[in-house]
Write a structure and sequence with these properties.
Length: 120
């Protein structure tokens, strides 16, 4: 694993999202802070290939369980664990005063907060 990938794992874990390598991806856990999934711990991830310039790379593709749905998103299964899909989500927050891992987690939590509840 590259030094950048190892640093991503260390930074995410230090920011409170326990991270670990899992094949071609890095998985980490976040607690949803709003929306239909509020309070739930969600295992999410990123392709290792996307963090090769860490910390100078913004989040974009977010791996989530296929059971998490959105009204509108672009998605595919590249590098995803079984039962997961990844969603494309542009990042346009440019405040460099926030540590990259905290900014990354804020972006992911914000995206998860707009997930829709599954039909009963």
């Amino acid at each position: 694993m590259s030094e950048a990938s190892q640093q991503f794992i260390a930074d995410m874990t230090a920011a409170g999202a326990s991270a670990r390598a899992d094949g071609p991806r890095i998985l980490y856990d976040v607690v949803a802070v709003g929306g239909a999934l509020a309070g739930q711990t969600i295992t999410t991830g990123v392709s290792i290939s996307e963090v090769q310039s860490w910390p100078a790379v913004p989040p974009h593709w977010i791996h989530l369980p296929a059971s998490v749905h959105f009204t509108e998103t672009n998605m595919d299964e590249t590098d995803c664990a079984p039962g997961y899909v990844r969603h494309s989500r542009d990042y346009n927050y440019t405040d460099t005063s926030i540590r990259p891992a905290r900014a990354w987690l804020s972006h992911v939590r914000g995206f998860i907060s707009i997930a829709i509840a599954e039909a009963a």
